[in-house]
Design brief:
Layout (H helix, E strand, L loop, with lengths): L3 H5 L5 H5 L5 H10 L18 E9 L5 E3 L3 E5 L14 H6 L1 E8 L10 E9 L2 H8 L4 E5 L7 E4 L4 E4 L1 E5 L1 H12 L2 E2 L2 E2 L35 E3 L5 E3 L2 H7 L12 H9 L4 H14 L1
Parallel strand pairs: 1-4
Antiparallel strand pairs: 1-2, 3-9, 4-5, 6-9, 7-8, 10-11, 12-13
């Protein structure tokens, strides 16, 4: 491929296809598929759409399922700017709210040009998750320096320190991605970090959390399925999803059934929020 591709398109560098290094495949996707030069701009890669591009590796585990190979880097930390940034105007917020993630299967000893892309997802972080992220959950701060000499001045210490970045928690990423790929990609099930589910959903126990992948025609074991008196299985209708979250009946009327299910997956259980607010109001 390294020899043939430049013959077909002389804009593709043989060195780009063959060189080693982490992140190199992402550079190829940026440069030759989407047609823009790799950069470190503080804005999202596709500015007009507000979409940030990520190319991330999967690994095949011993039991044949696919797991996340590496932590997903959100953004490098600018030590000088972060102290003056509000969360909603931060680089992290601008570059991480809507992500186009292209996953490929990492195989030891296989050259970059021969790696296989598995699937891609357009992932929008839910509003309630942003509140948790704002409270320093679902992601970590880790060193990410190319070399030991890769340091930036930190106003906190008054000296140059190793560069660091925000990294998404692996279990959080895969929990969100699993419903979008319906647990099957390229013939391999994704590793499941979520709570075990049963089929059908029991009617005499508390319901599982509704997620944004609840709607749509595609099969997924994350969607709620109940057994009817006639012995047939069925999905929950939008009104039932609204009731699980303690919304008024037909609260989302006007949207499509798929959109209504998405909205309930993105919502909170209103009664719980009300009770928490009442207790806080009584004790503050």
């Amino acid at each position: 491929m390294a020899e043939i591709v430049p013959m077909l398109d002389d804009t593709i560098s043989e060195d780009d296809l063959s060189q080693d290094g982490k992140g190199g495949l992402g550079v190829l996707v940026e440069k030759y598929f989407f047609g823009y030069d790799p950069n470190s701009n503080p804005e999202a890669d596709f500015l007009d759409a507000g979409v940030e591009l990520k190319v991330s590796p999967l690994k095949k585990l011993k039991d044949g399922v696919l797991g996340i190979k590496e932590r997903l880097v959100c953004d490098m930390i600018d030590y000088m700017a972060i102290v003056d940034e509000e969360f909603e105007q931060s680089r992290f917020f601008k570059k991480s709210v809507l992500l186009l993630i292209i996953f490929y299967l990492h195989l030891a000893g296989v050259e970059r040009k021969d790696l296989r892309f598995m699937f891609s997802v357009l992932w929008q972080i839910k509003g309630k998750d942003l509140l948790i992220i704002k409270d320093d959950k679902y992601f970590h701060v880790r060193p990410k320096a190319g070399t030991s000499k890769d340091k930036h001045f930190s106003p906190a210490t008054g000296e140059a320190v190793p560069r660091k970045a925000y990294w998404f928690n692996n279990s959080y990423v895969l929990k969100e991605v699993n419903p979008m790929c319906d647990l099957l990609v390229g013939g391999f099930p994704c590793q499941d970090y979520s709570v075990a589910t049963t089929l059908p959903d029991p009617l005499d126990r508390p319901s599982r959390t509704i997620i944004t992948g609840e709607g749509g025609a595609g099969p997924s074991r994350f969607k709620h399925v109940v057994l009817t008196p006639s012995g047939r299985y069925r999905r929950l209708i939008p009104k039932e999803l609204e009731r699980l979250n303690m919304f008024p009946d037909d609260h989302t009327t006007g949207a499509s059934d798929m959109r209504r299910a998405f909205l309930m997956g993105n919502a909170l259980v209103t009664g719980i929020v009300e009770r928490i607010g009442t207790i806080l109001a009584q004790n503050i």
